[in-house]
Write a structure and sequence with these properties.
heterodimer; A: 332 residues; alpha+beta; 14-stranded mixed sheet; 9 helices; 19 strands; disordered N terminus; B: 168 residues; mainly alpha; 8 helices
Chain lengths: 332, 168
C-alpha cells in the first residue's frame, strides 16, 4: 500500500489522468480491458469527463495552431551537453529495459467525484482516490457509491470488498455504510468485506467503530457498537453476537496484490470471495459443504487449479454444470 | 443492440474522437460499427458485445484514416469541408486566434524534444514508434513528452480562461 500523498494540485493530476487515457486510447490496438477501464474512469466523476473533453478539444484545436518544427540544432542541445548525451542515451536504454513491462500493465490512477457509483468487474482490483484524498482499493465484483457532505464522508459498500486508507479530518468522520451495518473511522486504514452471510472488518492502522442493527441511526434499536483496534478483526452476522479476534492485517489485505488468504473461514464465505475473481461461477449444493472450515490461499487467475485441488482437502466433488458454472457438492 | 447503443454511444463517440478529427466523422464511424454489429450473431454477453463494438469502431476509424492518407485525399477533404459546413462545431470547440497563438506559445516554453514530439504527432500524424526513432529516445519517453506537452498547454489555456472570467 502506498502512503497517502499530499496532492499539491488535484486539478493538474486530473488533467494528467485524462491525457494518459487520451494517449492510451489512441494506441493502434487498444485492448478491450483498457476501454472498459477508461469507461469506468469516465463514470467515476463528472470532472473526469470534463477533463477528457478539454484534452480532446485542445487536441483538435492544436491542429490549426501556428506550430513550427524544432530545428535539428536545437534538438541536439535538448537539456544535455554534447558530452553527456551518449551517457544519457545509455542510461535511458537501461532504464527503458527495466520499466518497459510495468508500463504496459500500469493503470491510470482514478480520481473520483462526489455522487459517483463505481463497480469493478469480476477478477479486477482497482485503486481509486476519493474526493478528500483518501484512497480505496476495490476488489473484484465490488460496488460502492460516494456521498460526501461537509459533516461526513460516506462511502456505501454495496457488494464485495474494499481496503480504505483514510485521510484524517477531525470533525468529519469517514463512514463505510454496508447493508448490514456501518463502520466509522477517523484517519485509519481498514478492510471491509461483505457477502450474503457476514460483514468482516479488519483494522490495519488506527481504530474504527462498527454499528449494526435494524436501524443504525436509531439509538434505541441498534446494537451496542463494536470498537476495533489495529490488528483486530470483527465478524458480524445477522442475529449473532459479533466475534472479535486478533489477526494479521496483511493476511486479510493480501487480495490487494492478487492473493486471497483465508484463516479458518466457512467455505460459503470463501466461495463468495473467490467468485469475485473466478471466470466461472462457483455454487455450493448441500448445506454441510458451506460450513466446512477452510484455511489457505487462492491466487487470482488460478482459481481453476484451486478448485481442482479442493476434493483433496474435503469430502466433496467438483462438477462442471455448464460452460460458466461449477457445483461443489458432498461426495458419494 | 438498442441497449448497447444507449449505454455506450457517448463513450464510443468520445473514444473515436481520439482517432478522428471531427465529431461528424466519429458519428459516421460509430454508425458503421453498429451496423456491422447488427449483422453479427448477438447471442453473446453484452459485455463481450461492447468490447467488440469498440474494437470494430477503432478498426473502421483506422481504415478511414488510411484511405484519407492515400488516394482518396482530395475527395475526402471536399466531402469533409461540406460536412463541417453542415454540422458546425459547438461554440466552445471553435478556437479563437488568440487561443491558437497561446497554444503555440505554450509549446515554445517546453524543451525542444518535447515540443518536437508533439509537433510530429499532432501535425504529421507520426506514430510514437516513428517519433522515438526520429528523436533517438524510447517510445515511453515519447509518451511522456506528449503527456507533458498536452497537460502544459491545457493548463495554460485554462489559466488564461480563468483570468478572462474573473478580471481583477
Amino acid at each position: 500500500m502506498s502512503p497517502l500523498k499530499n496532492n499539491p494540485s488535484p486539478h493538474t493530476e486530473r488533467l494528467e489522468e485524462a491525457t494518459e487515457w487520451w494517449l492510451r486510447l489512441r494506441e493502434p490496438n487498444v485492448p478491450p480491458d483498457v476501454v472498459a477501464d477508461w469507461m469506468l474512469w469516465c463514470e467515476a466523476a463528472a470532472e473526469n469527463r470534463e477533463a477528457f473533453a478539454s484534452i480532446q478539444s485542445l487536441w483538435h484545436q492544436a491542429k490549426s495552431a501556428p506550430l513550427e518544427p524544432v530545428s535539428r540544432g536545437r534538438l541536439r542541445f535538448d537539456g544535455w551537453s554534447r558530452r553527456v548525451l551518449p551517457w544519457a542515451i545509455a542510461a535511458g536504454a537501461a532504464i527503458a529495459v527495466s520499466v518497459s513491462v510495468p508500463w504496459l500493465q500500469q493503470r491510470v490512477s482514478m480520481h473520483t467525484g462526489n455522487g459517483a457509483a463505481i463497480a469493478t468487474r469480476v477478477g479486477i482490483n482497482r485503486e481509486i482516490v476519493l474526493p478528500d484524498g483518501s484512497q480505496a482499493t476495490l476488489g473484484g465484483a465490488t460496488a460502492l457509491t460516494i456521498s460526501y457532505t461537509t459533516e461526513r464522508r460516506t462511502v456505501s459498500l454495496n457488494s464485495g470488498e474494499a481496503f480504505f486508507e483514510v485521510r484524517s479530518e477531525p470533525g468529519r468522520p469517514f463512514i463505510v455504510q454496508t447493508p448490514s451495518g456501518r463502520v466509522a473511522a477517523v484517519g485509519t486504514a481498514f478492510n471491509v468485506r461483505i457477502d450474503d452471510h457476514a460483514l468482516r472488518v479488519t483494522v490495519s492502522h488506527g481504530s474504527v467503530e462498527i454499528v449494526t442493527g435494524a436501524s443504525a441511526t436509531n439509538l434505541a434499536e441498534r446494537n451496542p457498537p463494536v470498537w476495533l483496534r489495529a490488528g483486530q478483526q470483527a465478524v458480524l452476522r445477522p442475529n449473532d453476537a459479533p466475534v472479535t479476534s486478533a489477526i494479521d492485517p496483511h493476511v486479510v489485505t493480501a487480495w490487494t496484490t492478487g492473493t486471497l488468504k483465508f484463516i479458518d473461514e466457512p467455505l460459503v464465505s470463501v466461495i463468495a470471495a473467490v467468485n469475485r475473481y473466478s471466470p466461472t461461477r462457483i455454487e455450493i449444493r448441500g448445506g454441510d459443504v458451506g460450513n466446512l472450515r477452510y484455511t489457505g490461499t487462492v491466487v487470482s487467475g488460478r482459481v481453476e487449479e484451486w478448485l481442482a485441488a479442493l476434493p483433496n482437502a474435503f469430502p466433496i466433488e467438483v462438477v462442471s454444470q455448464d460452460s460458466d458454472r461449477v457445483i461443489l457438492r458432498p461426495r458419494g | 443492440m438498442e441497449r448497447l447503443y444507449s449505454e455506450h454511444n457517448q463513450a464510443l463517440i468520445r473514444f473515436l474522437m481520439t482517432r478522428v478529427d471531427s465529431e461528424q466523422e466519429a458519428q459516421d464511424v460509430a454508425h458503421e460499427a453498429y451496423v456491422r454489429m447488427l449483422q453479427l450473431d448477438t447471442r453473446g454477453a453484452i459485455s463481450y458485445l461492447s468490447a467488440y463494438l469498440f474494437k470494430t469502431a477503432a478498426n473502421i476509424a483506422i481504415d478511414r484514416i488510411r484511405r484519407t492518407q492515400t488516394g482518396e485525399r482530395v475527395h475526402q477533404s471536399v466531402s469533409r469541408s461540406l460536412t463541417e459546413a453542415a454540422f458546425p462545431a459547438p461554440e466552445h470547440e471553435i478556437a479563437s486566434r488568440q487561443e491558437l497563438e497561446l497554444i503555440a506559445r505554450s509549446l515554445e516554453e517546453l524543451p525542444p524534444k518535447c515540443r518536437q514530439a508533439f509537433y510530429l504527432h499532432r501535425i504529421h500524424d507520426m506514430s510514437l514508434d516513428d517519433i522515438a526513432r526520429e528523436l533517438r529516445v524510447t517510445k515511453r519517453m515519447v509518451h511522456h513528452y506528449l503527456l507533458r506537452a498536452i497537460v502544459h498547454c491545457r493548463s495554460r489555456l485554462n489559466a488564461a480562461a480563468q483570468i478572462a472570467e474573473d478580471p481583477l
